[in-house]
Specification:
Layout (H helix, E strand, L loop, with lengths): L1 H17 L12 E5 L5 E5 L3 E5 L4 E5 L8 E6 L3 E12 L4 E8 L5 E5 L3 E3 L2 E5 L3 E7 L2 E9 L4 E7 L4 E4 L6 E4 L4 E2 L2 H15 L3 H9 L10 H12 L35
Antiparallel strand pairs: 1-2, 2-6, 3-6, 3-9, 4-5, 4-8, 6-7, 7-8, 10-13, 10-16, 11-12, 13-14, 14-15
Helix pairs in contact: 1-2, 1-3, 2-3, 3-4
Length: 268
């Protein structure tokens, strides 16, 4: 049953990324603000621009800019979309949200939570552990955390030797050095599916299902999947501390980043 579910997710991912285009070269600088009859401000951008979804999971987009509106579809992290230039404020899960009017590559349109839509950006995925930097007066300062392999990001600014990227939402921005990234759709798709597998109850079956798909054999992350499978199938003995006879056992916790992302409009 689990294997069938993962195969369905893999096929869905392949179909979804078939529609994704590679262009991300238009930028709209001129905006105007108008007021609707009900007093809600609507920002109109001169031209639509390419955009990237950066929500870590599945982000619903809706028929109207409000949380209770009907669902038009879902977006995956790293998916290339078009921001159609309209932003409206509407009721969210808690309080009001800014909703962006977006269009998928298959032509489906809807309103998505703007915190996770990055206009005028290009998607990529981290290949090797990457140091992050903050910028102060054009000087990059080393930060105290790194981006792990298979982290999907949106590139919002390219200065040649430095890239400014969003990694969690539009407010989580850092600088990194280029050269540790993949821009390939297949690698972004595999990174999403690996996350799905590791978040599931049957991690091994999920990862094995990815390896069974011929289309993914050229992904740069295939070796990562094999290594993770080996670790899952050959777990190390937990580290124990405490004096003999005391019966105290301390397990070493996983060093995983905690997330402070608020409850999102995600598909469950």
């Amino acid at each position: 049953m689990h294997k069938k579910l993962f195969l369905f997710l893999i096929i869905f991912s392949l179909v979804g990324f078939t529609f994704i285009t590679l262009s991300c070269d238009k930028k709209a600088d001129d905006t105007t603000t108008q007021a609707d009859g009900d007093g809600t401000e609507e920002i109109i951008v001169a031209e639509p621009v390419k955009a990237v979804c950066i929500y870590d999971g599945e982000l619903r987009f809706r028929k109207e800019p409000e949380y209770e509106s009907g669902i038009s579809g879902t977006l995956r992290k790293g998916e290339k979309i078009t921001f159609l230039g309209r932003i409206e404020e509407g009721p969210g899960y808690r309080g009001n949200w800014e909703y962006y009017l977006i269009q998928r590559s298959d032509g489906t349109e809807g309103w998505a939570w703007g915190d996770y839509i990055i206009p005028d950006a290009a998607p990529a995925v981290i290949v090797t552990k990457t140091t992050t930097y903050d910028q102060n007066n054009d000087v990059q300062i080393n930060m105290d955390f790194s981006l792990e392999p298979m982290t999907i990001i949106a590139i919002v600014e390219d200065k040649g030797s430095w890239l400014k990227v969003a990694y969690k939402n539009k407010d989580k921005l850092v600088w990194i050095k280029p050269g540790t990234l993949s821009y390939a759709d297949i690698d972004i798709s595999v990174a999403n599916l690996v996350k799905d597998a590791l978040d599931s109850d049957d991690k091994v079956t999920g990862l094995e299902s990815i390896l069974e798909i011929d289309a993914f054999r050229d992904s740069i992350f295939i070796n990562n999947i094999h290594e993770t499978l080996f670790e899952l199938q050959n777990p190390e003995e937990p580290e124990m501390t405490g004096s003999a006879g005391e019966g105290e056992v301390t397990l070493t916790p996983d060093e995983s980043e905690t997330t402070d992302t608020p409850p999102a409009d995600n598909a469950q």
